[in-house]
Amino acid sequence: MNTTIQTLLNHKTIRSYLNKPISNEIFEVLMEVANRTASSSGMQQASIIHVVDQSKKEIIAQVCKQDYVAQAPVLLIFVVDQHRNHHIAMEVSNQANQTNDVDRFFQGFTDAALMAQSVVTAAESLGLGTTYLGAIHNDDETVIKALNLPHLTYPVVGLLIGYTHIEPTLKPRLSTSLRVFKDEYVSYTEYMPQLKAMDEAMSNYVDTRNPSRTMAPFTQQVSERMNYANPLRLRMGQNILKQGFSFNLDE
Ligand SMILES: Cc1cc2nc3c(=O)[nH]c(=O)nc-3n(C[C@H](O)[C@H](O)[C@H](O)COP(=O)(O)O)c2cc1C
């Protein structure tokens, strides 16, 4: 055990922030941490938009349907970025034929997600709270427009960072036996018997978004989520293509 592992094992999402700014010094350190993150082939195919304009923060808060998003001291959007390398290749060789394929997209997506997690770990180690915002995909077209995201970029995830006064409890997790396998994937014929403890733990967990009640059992949450789709989020594929990526899905 060391302090890094303690920070990671103490992770919890914060959804309420104090009106206290983050110093420039801390912000710069967090951005250096992001920039130091491993990247696919060292190509650094992700970038960060630091959203400071209050009207843009409000647009993102509306897309996410979460008011506190506009009030958090720091809002970052991590983006797949093949725009930069496309232009570099064009300047160097006057051609860039392989900057928009499925592999490039997911290299950038992974780079962006890893950068975000580096920032989360560093921020939490400094006593700051963080919130990931996958909800930016409720309306990625609006996010793309607000941030003026060019050809060959796409927003992956948002991240709030700030000081907090709340101390949520740890949210239950599945047993590692259900998520970590040796040599090959293990599929159970029945999952429910393995999930009794998880369901019970979740039924005692209070999400800070709804402090007046405990959460539904995990298996019920899964069943509800696996049977619902937000129609706007189903447009993600089309909007990724509109940004210039091409997945060549035809055989
Ligand atoms: C990719 C990703 C997207 C997320 N999007 C949101 C979001 O839009 N809004 C939110 O309140 N929490 C969001 N979360 C936080 C999860 O709800 C949270 O991590 C999960 O419920 C586990 O809780 P914990 O982080 O407190 O352990 C997101 C997390 C991840 C990894």
Features:
alpha+beta, four-stranded antiparallel sheet, globular, 251 residues, binds flavin mononucleotide, NADH Oxidase, 38% helix
Describe the structure.
This protein is α+β, with helices and mostly antiparallel strands and 251 residues long. The protein has a single domain (3-168, 227-242), classed as NADH Oxidase (3-Layer(aba) Sandwich). The protein has helices spanning 3-9, 24-36, 54-64, 83-93, 102-125, 140-146, 196-203, 218-225, 236-242; strands at residues 46-51, 74-81, 129-133, 153-162. The chain has a 4-stranded antiparallel β-sheet, with helices on both faces. Helix 2 (24-36) packs across helix 5 (102-125) and helix 3 packs antiparallel against helix 6. The longest helix is centred in the middle third of the chain and has 24 residues, at 102-125. It is globular. It starts with a helix and ends in a 9-residue tail after the last helix. The model has no long low-confidence stretch (mean pLDDT 96). It binds flavin mononucleotide.
Outline the secondary-structure elements.
Elements: H1 3-9, H2 24-36, E1 46-51, H3 54-64, E2 74-81, H4 83-93, H5 102-125, E3 129-133, H6 140-146, E4 153-162, H7 196-203, H8 218-225, H9 236-242
Antiparallel strand pairs: 1-2, 2-4, 3-4
Helix pairs in contact: 2-5, 3-6
Bound molecules: flavin mononucleotide (FMN).
Flavin mononucleotide (FMN) is lined by residues 11-13, 15, 64, 131-135, 157, 171.
